[in-house]
Every structure is written in structure tokens, then in C-alpha cells.
Amino acid sequence: MRSIFILILGLTTLLVSCEKPITYKESSVLSQYATINQKEDIFSFTDTCITPYVYTKVISLRDLPVIEKKQKFVEMLLPSILVAKHDLFAKIKRVEHIQLWQETNPILLEKDSLFLSDLFKTYKCNELPELKRRLKPHPASIVLGQAALESGWGSSRFFKEGNNVFGIWSYHAGENRIKALVGRDSTSIYVRSYESIENSVEDYFKTIARVNAYKEFRIERYNCEEPLKLVSFLNRYSEVGEIYTNKLKQLIESNDLTKYDTYVIKEEFLLEKEILLSEAI
């Protein structure tokens, strides 16, 4: 309902009187930033709990043997996927905290109000249920599968030069971008350039969250965690539709990517920070 959004905007300068400070514990990831100059710089996984290495410079995996190329690609990408997913789940948790507050308090805290206003703007919606649906990420296996298809398992020029894993296009001259060697008809094509793989993954999740073509996918993934079932709802990700989703499903199955859906970030890299939402009055 638009009334929720209007209420938020109308109360951003108000504070709630209280006898003690109101705080919130926010979870984040202590990412370990690194660069890759040779394949040996890619950190391997020893178990399902992994260190969140975020790579700001990568190499092309084109010349590696197929099995090694695929493994190195997953090792490069999965940590950034888990970091991005953790951030999205942290936002959902904060939204749910605000919803609980609203049940007993008619006025939102100023910091909560600003937090929601920013998310509504970023994710192009104005209702809390829809916001949570757009924020919720999908299984890592789907992200890995699409990344593998779009970058040729880390072989594309856009991946090597701009950390662009998904070939996402750029439509604004003012942003960092790379010109494609081949345009469409008489129009030049550009793709976005990112500071890290994590930024590329974050932008991918935002694209899925905001573009109307993925509305059915968002609705389905909110209550479903089955990767191979969800893939069918990504038919509008590519111009070839069902051919694309069949290829994606086959890639996920043949490379056993669903096993990575159980991987998590090591606990020692998960941080909790207490945020002061309101001073005592």
C-alpha cells in the first residue's frame, strides 16, 4: 500500500520518546580483498565453510584445462556470491525488525524510516511485502550457472577487463564501462565495469530484483529453494527463452553446482555491530 511509503516519508524527522536507547544488531561480513595475477592466487576451498575472498582483479581462465577452469571459476566467484547474499538477508532481517516495531508503535524511528526510504528507491517499490520479495536472493547454484554461461567460465574479455561476470550492459556514458567489439545494427554496445567481482554480483541481484521481466521469478523464489524448479522462471533473461533455461538447467546438473548451495562463510568473518536507533529521552 502506498500509504506505508507516504507515512515513512512524512515521519522521517520525528523521534520516538523512550526511557532507554533503542538499538539494533546489524550483521556484516569482513571481506578479504585480493587480486589475481596467476591461477595460484585463487584460494581453494577445503570444506563447506569458506573465507570470503573478494577479488578486485582477475585473470582469464580461457587457456586452463576444462576441469581446472571450472573449479577455479567457482573458487573465484562463490565467496562474492555468499557475501552478496549475506548482505541481502541482513537487509531483510532489518526490514522484519521494523515490521515488528510497527505492530506496537505508530511512528517509525528516524533511522529506520531513512533506511526503508533508501531501499524503496533502490528496489523501485513502495510496499514492505514486495520489498522483501525483491531483496530475497536465490540459491548460489543458479548464480554460478548464469555466471558460467555469460562469461564462458571466466573466459570473456568483459570478465577479465571489468570484473563483469554476467555481461550486464551499460546505458549511461557517465559510468565505468567497456565498449563491445561488435555492436547491434549501427548501435555501439557497452557493458559495465566493476571494481570487484562482488560489485558485479551485487548489480546482478539488483537487476533481477528490479526489472519487471523477472517478476514471476521473484514471486516463485520467495517460497521456493529448489534451483532446478526456479530456473524455468528465468526464461526472459535471454532472447532465446526456453532454450536458455534448458541450457542453464543442464549446466547446473552436469556440473553438480547445487552442492555449493550449502556452502557458508566462516563464522570468524561474520561481524555484528550495534546500531543506535534512538537516544534515551
Automatic annotation (TrEMBL):
Residues 106-261 form the Mannosyl-glycoprotein endo-beta-N-acetylglucosamidase-like domain. It comes from the Bacteria. Coiled coil: none annotated. This is Glucosaminidase domain-containing protein. Transmembrane segments: none annotated. It comes from Paralabilibaculum antarcticum.
